[in-house]
Amino acid sequence: xxxxxxxxxxxxxxxxxxxxxxVEALRSxxxxxxxxxxxxxxxxxxxFRSRMAAEIPDFEPSHFMHxxxxxxxxRFVQLALAAARLALEDAGLGxxxxxxxxxxxxxxxxxxxxEPGFGRFDxxxxxxxxxxxxxxxxIAHAENQLRTFLERGARGLDxxxxxxxxxxxxxxxxxxRLGISGPNSTNAMSCAAGTMAIGEAARLIRDGVVxxxxxxxxxxxxxxxxxxxxxxxxxxxTRNDEPxxxxxxxxxxxDGFVMGEGSCIxxxxxxxxxxxxxxxxxxxxxxxxxxxxxxxxxxxxPDGVMAAEAIRWALQEAGREARExxxxxxxxxxxxxxxxxxxxxxRKALGARTDDVPVTGTKPYHGHALGASGAMEAAIVCLxxxxxxxxxxxNLESPGDGxxxxxxxxxxxxxxxxxxxxxxxxxxxxxxxxxxxVLCLTSPDVG
Length: 447
Known about the structure:
Layout: E1 8-17, E2 20-21, H1 23-32, E3 38-39, E4 52-53, H2 67-71, H3 75-90, E5 94-95, E6 120-121, E7 128-133, H4 139-152, H5 161-165, H6 169-178, E8 184-187, H7 193-206, E9 212-219, H8 224-232, E10 262-270, H9 271-276, E11 283-292, H10 305-318, E12 327-329, H11 336-350, E13 358-360, H12 363-366, H13 373-387, E14 389-390, E15 406-407, E16 418-419, E17 424-431, E18 435-442
Parallel strand pairs: 7-8, 7-9, 12-13, 12-17, 13-15
Antiparallel strand pairs: 1-2, 1-10, 1-11, 3-4, 5-6, 9-10, 11-18, 14-16, 17-18
Helix pairs in contact: 3-6, 7-13, 10-11
């Protein structure tokens, strides 16, 4: 952070994941060191080589919003609304028991008031941003509507189809439901989308445009055509007889990623504001780096030079050096090419420090939820900083060729994971089109 520049801190986490909904549930899911990946139930996946996913079977939208709102929105929007509510409550900014200022029909509330079932929140709506990422937006609902159109014709189409399926529907619904009128944006930069949303939100706060932001990602891609598109790429695991062992970051026997769904939103605030109200601070968003490989739409640049540069940029913005890094939460998609390349990228960026830095990949806990994954991983890093504990990389039994880092594996049973102070951490996200995005998160206790 440059002298005189505002700091950006994380004061609230809103995870909606297959390992748990809410901070304590996610924390428990990580401690259990057990993958929730299972045979897919959202639809019949028998035509595909891959037939499993990290689903969220116990998500009930009406627990987080008015039933009429749930009925008018796509699943990815519902996941995002739930994540926003959880994040605000975790930040001590939401009062779920307060009476909202709007009617009880799911209509838009007044500024600063959340619809019935949300309560109220304590933020200046004009000085608050909403920044999200979503790779697929409402594609699942669009698929369902296409089937309806083919069966029943134009009269069967949902009149809200256009406003429920575009990628910005989630961030805009959050704005409408919470009355937030500050900068609102959704990027669709594939698997780096959630990380980029957090980075861009931090810039808005650091530059003084806003004082707070809801930032993260949401995706609900478990629909036949969307799922089938990735299956056709042969990028997903086919370990269908052992779903819980299928996502294997850096392992010699990894054979592809496992798709997931979910959302995670973080409350970011100006550090001075957060401290003045006595907020609990998880971490500081100290640095952000993003660029493009300019190489291939689906494969990383072999030399990893631009991804390594994104890591260096994040460290530079944070005012940190490679020798200070205590932990890396890797993108770790569990694909043969990407994990090997990422290992070399980390080594290229951290140099001599590399062998002393514990690296973990957490997608076995939440699947690859595309645009939401980076936000989930950022939240997990926040917990690592706050708790002094790095979760293990599940199913990592023997590192594959070229995967030669200090991985935190799960071979220690109940003692799995790595305990110790985490002051400076990196979280990597790499997406289609060669997008690289990296956050540097630091402990609020270090200057």
